[in-house]
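Protein modeling request. Please complete all fields; requests missing the sequence field cannot be processed.
Requester role: graduate student
Desired output: 3D structure, token encoding
Chains: 1
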Amino acid sequence: MTQLRPITVLIVDDSALIRQCLRRLLAELPSVQVVAEAENAEGAIAAFDRLCPDAAILDLELRQSAGMDVLDHIKRVRPACLTVVLTTLAVAETRRLCLENGADYFLDKPTEFEQLLQILSDASQPSSAK
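Delivered output (130 residues):
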């Protein structure tokens, strides 16, 4: 049996309910460990810099800050970090902008939420190491 690669994850969303749902969803994957959560860009950047997670799940609409700032910081500091934008702003222009700025995935929160399981499961496979 193949050994799964552990994946550490930072969750960035201003909704405590969404963060709780994400934690519960990700708990289904034994190789995934949520190491931090943040509700704003400042907290997310501080947690990212301190913990260097393997992956980040980012909302774009954060109270008093923008998730795009977090995406830009992550990709500038550690381009190999797997970034998943999970947002209700899933319009073509926003999707294009996020992908151009380095997001690995762009998911619509209401309809594609559970795709996170497959994305992180795939990332934990030994052959997916970046």
